[in-house]
């Protein structure tokens, strides 16, 4: 069923920048009551129209930004020890979190079995020292922390979408569909997104053709013409992470929600638990049926703003 559009799907003029598509806005059911608890409760939300990047920001585009501004990403800078009292010295060096494929089955409750901080990993060196962007210029940029994403968007004259805007766009005009393209994961055996096939994190069957990230535009677009709104890389949104029930009202339609407040968990617990978190959406090439079925528009996870990681990127919007 098509989303109830509140404005004409016709664009209100020329796109403000090349590569942006008009997302008409409308009322839709956000979240899901049938998957992970953080997606519930589903609730009605209305968003206005906006322009959105057809693709996630690529390494080529991010390099233009860095060349123009001299921006140094968070992962490329040493960490102030005062911000992380008691942290091991090796974690204070410029570093980022990199996926390491396991040699065999592991305990899925322990993410350290596949994630590791790698000194010298950053957007230019996505797998760590010695790696480069050779052959990856059309792939989404990764290892970008929240402040890097904000800086790029400001330079580009754009913004980062809210969670509601991102999810509305990802649904592509389909109300209540499981995926961005419908209700079947691989219709007719065709892979619609770059995800993990096999047993995560050790057996990747590569039936979609990709071990890691894929070049943008490798998979079919959704109903709004947007590519890779599921899989490939998670994408930053502007919302602070909170439970849906704390920031929305299930009884009525919320209009243009704008991200809530910094989550209360920042006020207590360990230093790591006090780091503010944003919502990331869309899943990545590491999402697998046996571990992370989050390659769906409703899926959401919390991402610390100070962490750069090898499966998280972003795309931008311009509001009407």
Helicity, as a percent range: 10-25%
CATH superfamily membership: paralog of FGE (formylglycine-generating enzyme)
Approximate strand percentage: 15-25%
Low-confidence parts: 4-8, 267-272
Q: Helix-strand pattern, N to C?
A: EEEEHEEHHEHEEEEE
For the sheet with most strands, the description reads: 4 strands, mixed
For the terminal residues, how far apart are their CA atoms?
Answer: 25 Å
What is the arithmetic mean of pLDDT?
Answer: 91
Overall 3D form? globular
- Strand pairing plus helix content: what structural class? alpha+beta
Side-by-side strand order of the widest sheet? 10-9-7-11
Radius of gyration: 19 Å
Tell me the number of strands.
12
Provide a count of the helices: 4
- Tell me which CATH architecture applies here: Alpha-Beta Complex
Name the CATH class. Answer: Alpha Beta
Tally of individual domains: 1
CATH structural fold name: paralog of FGE (formylglycine-generating enzyme)
């Amino acid at each position: 069923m098509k989303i109830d559009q509140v404005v004409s799907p016709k664009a209100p003029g020329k796109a403000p920048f090349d590569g942006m598509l008009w997302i008409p806005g409308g009322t839709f059911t956000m979240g899901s009551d049938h998957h992970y608890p953080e997606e519930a409760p589903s609730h009605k939300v209305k968003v206005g129209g906006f322009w959105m990047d057809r693709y996630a920001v690529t390494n080529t585009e991010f390099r233009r930004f860095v060349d123009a501004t001299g921006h140094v990403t968070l992962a490329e800078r040493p960490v102030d020890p005062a911000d992380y009292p008691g942290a091991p010295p090796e974690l204070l060096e410029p570093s980022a979190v990199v996926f390491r494929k396991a040699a065999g089955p592991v305990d899925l409750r322990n993410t350290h079995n596949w994630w590791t901080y790698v000194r010298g990993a950053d957007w230019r060196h996505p797998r760590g020292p010695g790696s480069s962007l050779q052959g990856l210029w059309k792939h989404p940029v990764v290892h970008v922390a929240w402040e890097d994403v904000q800086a790029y968007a400001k330079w580009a004259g754009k913004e980062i979408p809210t969670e509601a805007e991102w999810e509305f766009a990802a649904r592509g005009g389909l109300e209540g569909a499981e995926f961005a393209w419908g209700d079947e994961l691989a219709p007719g055996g065709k892979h619609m997104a770059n995800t993990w096939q096999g047993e995560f994190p050790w057996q990747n069957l590569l039936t979609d053709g990709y071990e890691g990230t894929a070049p943008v535009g490798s998979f079919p677009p959704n109903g709004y013409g947007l590519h890779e709104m599921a899989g490939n890389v998670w994408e930053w949104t502007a919302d602070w992470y909170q439970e849906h029930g704390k920031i929305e009202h299930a009884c009525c339609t919320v209009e243009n929600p704008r991200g809530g407040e910094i989550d209360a968990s920042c006020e207590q617990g360990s230093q790591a638990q006090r780091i503010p978190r944003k919502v990331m959406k869309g899943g990545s090439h590491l999402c697998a049926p046996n571990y992370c079925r989050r390659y769906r528009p409703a899926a959401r996870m919390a991402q610390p703003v100070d962490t750069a990681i090898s499966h998280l990127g972003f795309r931008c919007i311009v509001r009407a």
